[in-house]
Write a structure and sequence with these properties.
By secondary structure, this protein is α+β, with helices and mostly antiparallel strands. It has a six-stranded mixed sheet with strand order 2-1-6-3-4-5, sandwiched between helices. It has a four-stranded mixed sheet with strand order 8-7-12-9. Strands 13-14-15 form a three-stranded antiparallel sheet, with helices on one face. The chain is globular. The structure holds iron/sulfur cluster.
Length: 572
């Protein structure tokens, strides 16, 4: 197996150091998230301000990136989150990870703060710090266009939201692909780092090329073939299922079913689809370019559809498309943005803020996206995320978040697995750390019962810690229909020549998850609480009033702690 290369960039002192990742780290953590998290944990000074120069952001690939397989395309990044003040992580699809591999750079470790705006040019194992004064103030689309014209290669960048330190600013690549959650864009902005360009044409070696060909055939027949609906509609394909099941968050978590759903369903959105796009080497091509008037956007993904649609009680698909486009341009995480806007709507409806922000007002949503990105008026408060916004505004509307991160589009009142998964996810309320919504929605596990949920969440969390270390796309590794432990073990052997027995992989996954929790404990982020609304305020599901029962939640959490071998929540 080839050595993994690490480039360290100190923007304050303009210092660059290259080294190999120690072999024992590779063996213990595989790559991507695993190694990056270990480096972050060991290098970060505890309790620093995440927007200070001392914060570190690490981009990393894994052993499977760049091989000719659907899904082998994701780049991971880890950092201390300016939104949660705890462990921050995000993964981005597209074409970045294979390019890093071809450039001979496995990890890009960035700390410090440049005196003036800069971008990094990573090329064939080296990195150069370049002046970006001419790019500051430009949006992500403009920045990427300029840098690709100047250098070629692949680019990721921040927009005005990252420059303005919006706490949930994201990083954009190829317009429609993002490092979305936890505020990685604000961390780049705080470092005066506008963008990174990656270039390289190195070879990608595979230990067993025949084995890889056979695996690709198996994957196309057994995994890709099961993603037909995603291929046709993109991620909104799941929306009719969540709406029907009563778990589509609506009107700022008041309801789980949207009366005007038909207007924003995947089927309705089809009339806007111009073409499909895919990440490197992927035949699923789940990206959908939708066009409304002169706006063309890759999206809306399901999470954007719920956040800027049903959560804001907005049934106007055109306004969702326009707001989605602005979020991608300015570099805003659509889940947190939609939650922040819907929170403001709830406050306005109760007369707790002066601004008139009506539920369902698509024009207002567009206006607020701009105000958040540029921190204007109420947008300046919402740019802090709902947890801080509620404190600043002193309102009684409960801000819905876990550890400060706003939740995605799965109401836990009708998905017990998600009630647990939201609190055990170390980056805050997240659906992707465990994907527990899938087996719950599919009926593989009773979604209103505690039974088996802790075991499911723990196993999937450990599995996805490994997947994010490969670094592989979730959609090819979904519960029930995607690759599982044995397939990953086999694929690692084919690509690296190394043996990773299933039990060993499970231990690695568990170690990585434990490390993220240790990180949070060290930072004082130990909150494992579900928002009160889910316990106290029922949603109607099949004519029944449904809440998460507190005793059920405690039972699941206790069982989860037992399985992890941790002390019980009330002792911690
Ligand atoms: S399934 Fe979609 S997100 Fe995943 S690699 Fe393929 S195109 Fe990209």
């Amino acid at each position: 197996m080839l050595k993994m290369h690490l480039l360290r960039v100190d923007l304050t002192h303009k210092e660059i150091k290259a080294s190999n990742v120690p072999e024992k780290l590779e063996k213990a953590y595989i790559g991507g998230k695993g190694i990056a998290t270990k480096l972050l944990y060991e290098s970060l000074t505890p309790r620093i301000d995440p927007l200070s120069p001392e914060n570190i952001i690490i981009f990393g690939i894994g052993p499977l990136n760049g091989v000719n397989l659907p899904g082998a395309s994701r780049l991971t990044c880890v950092f201390k989150s300016p939104l949660t003040f705890g462990y921050g992580e995000s993964q981005c699809g597209g074409f970045l990870a294979p390019k890093f591999k071809k450039a001979g750079v496995d990890f890009l470790f960035i700390t410090g703060r440049a005196e003036k705006p800069v971008y990094l040019l990573v090329e064939d194992g080296e990195v150069e710090i370049k002046n970006a004064t001419h790019l500051w103030g430009k949006d992500c689309y403009e920045t990427e266009d300029i840098l690709r014209k100047d250098h070629g290669g692949e680019v990721f960048s921040i927009g005005q939201a990252g420059e303005n330190l919006v706490r949930f600013a994201c990083i954009t690549h190829r317009r429609g692909r993002q490092f979305g959650r936890c505020g990685a864009g604000a961390v780049m902005g705080s470092k005066n780092l506008k963008a990174v360009v990656v270039k390289g044409n190195g070879e990608i070696e595979v230990a067993d090329p025949d084995g890889l060909r056979e695996f690709r055939r198996w994957m196309n027949e057994n995994v890709v073939s099961k993603l037909e609906s995603m291929k046709k509609f993109g991620t909104p394909s799941i929306a009719s299922l969540t709406n029907e099941a009563g778990v589509l968050p609506t009107k700022y978590w008041e309801k789980g079913n949207f009366e005007y759903f038909e207007e924003i369903s995947a089927e309705s959105l089809q009339k806007f689809v111009k073409k499909s796009t895919s990440c490197y080497g992927c035949s699923v091509a789940c990206g959908k370019i939708r066009k409304s008037k002169d706006i063309e956007v890759e999206g809306p993904e399901y999470e954007t559809l719920f956040a800027l649609g049903s959560l804001c009680y907005n049934s106007d698909p055109k306004s969702i498309i326009i707001a989605n486009d602005l979020c991608d341009r300015y570099g805003l995480d659509t889940i947190s943005t939609g939650n922040a806007i819907a929170f403001a709507m709830a406050c306005s409806e109760r007369g707790e803020i002066d601004e008139k922000i009506r539920f369902g007002d698509g024009e207002k949503i567009i206006e607020l996206v701009k105000k958040i990105a540029f921190r204007e008026g109420i947008g300046d408060v919402l740019a802090e995320g709902v947890k801080r916004a509620a404190e600043i505004l002193r309102v009684t509307v409960e801000p819905v978040h876990v550890k400060g991160l706003e939740p995605p589009g799965y109401d836990p009142r009708g998905l017990y697995g998600m009630a647990l998964a939201y609190v055990t996810s170390q980056r805050g309320a997240c659906h992707m750390r465990s994907c527990a919504y899938r087996p719950n929605l599919a009926g593989v596990i009773d979604r209103f019962s505690t039974k088996g949920q802790a075991e499911l969440v723990k196993d999937r969390e450990d599995f996805y810690c490994v997947v994010d270390s490969l670094v592989y796309c979730r959609f090819l590794c979904l519960p029930i229909i995607g690759m599982d432990w044995k397939d990953v073990s086999k694929l690692l052997k084919i690509v690296t020549g190394r043996n990773y027995p299933i039990q060993k992989l499970k231990e690695i996954g568990e170690n990585i998850h434990n490390l993220t929790r240790e990180f949070n404990k060290r930072e004082g982020v130990t909150d494992e609480k579900l928002p009160k609304i889910f316990f106290r305020y029922p949603v109607k599901i099949y004519d029944k009033d449904v809440v998460v029962k507190e005793e059920d939640f405690e039972e699941m959490l206790k069982e989860y702690y037992r399985l992890r071998g941790w002390r019980s929540p009330d002792q911690d």
